[in-house]
TrEMBL record:
SMART domains: HTH_GNTR (SM00345). PROSITE patterns: HTH_GNTR. This is DNA-binding GntR family transcriptional regulator. Gene3D superfamilies: GntR ligand-binding domain-like, Winged helix-like DNA-binding domain superfamily/Winged helix DNA-binding domain. Keywords: DNA-binding, Transcription, Transcription regulation. It comes from Cellulomonas iranensis.
Length: 227
């Protein structure tokens, strides 16, 4: 079984971490994020302050700061009487996330299409195509790399619109989209993702927003098939 990354892994072994304040909180946030997005922490798993503080050698204040950061990324949820738990993506949450992605991605595609007729110029599509090539070269066992390359395809497509605010808004969904892809992992492989996104980049130039919505709806349907 692969050992979970902890704050101590990057520090001199001591009873407590040598990192303090914001540095310790950032390190713990990164460690817990990696555990959630790798599946080491399963959906619904409880995250208890006292246990995490002891495991990672940090204060409970640092744990609270890290959990608040993960909650802002929607990777964990905090509920009264139930505490903090790793987020679950039920049908409503999956479709809500995909609707938000579609709104941003459709607007980006609309802006690109307003400037360029199909087929779009090579320089417009080059970053997204490079991301697909990177996806094709990832090790299927390194799901974090797969997640990163997948995210880069969509972010490059949005960035092609030339709107920093639109790109920033889309990038802010990155952790939640990675969690979504983790849930889809049993139904996808790297070759399938590459084929799907290669076809998507061709389709979106011709059909625009319709292609965006179909692509994103497909993933939601894979996870939660319509009744």
């Amino acid at each position: 079984m692969t050992a979970r990354p902890t704050v101590r892994d990057a520090a001199t072994p001591r009873t407590r971490s040598t990192a303090t304040g914001p540095t310790a909180a950032r390190a713990l946030t990164a460690a817990l994020r990696a555990q959630v997005l790798s599946g080491a922490l399963a959906p619904g798993a409880p995250l208890r302050e006292e246990a995490l503080a002891a495991e990672h050698g940090v204060s409970r204040h640092t744990v609270r700061t890290a959990l608040a950061a993960l909650a802002a990324e929607r990777l964990v949820t905090a509920q009264e009487y139930r505490g903090v738990r790793v987020a679950r993506l039920d049908d409503d949450e999956v479709r809500s996330l995909q609707h938000l992605r579609a709104a941003l991605e459709c607007e980006a595609v609309h802006l690109v299409a307003a400037r360029h007729r199909a087929p779009w110029p090579d320089h417009v599509l080059a970053p997204a195509r490079a991301a697909v090539a990177e996806l094709a070269g990832t090790d299927p066992a390194d799901w974090a790399a797969v997640q990163g390359a997948h995210a880069a395809v969509h972010l490059a497509l949005v960035a092609a619109a030339g709107s920093p605010r639109l790109t920033d808004a889309y990038a802010s969904l990155g952790a939640e989209v990675a969690l979504l892809l983790l849930h889809a992992r049993p139904r996808y492989d790297v070759a399938g993702l590459v084929a799907e996104h290669t076809a998507y980049l061709a389709d979106v130039q011709v059909r625009g927003a319709v292609a965006v919505r179909e692509h994103l709806t497909h993933l939601a349907d894979v996870l939660h098939p319509p009744a």
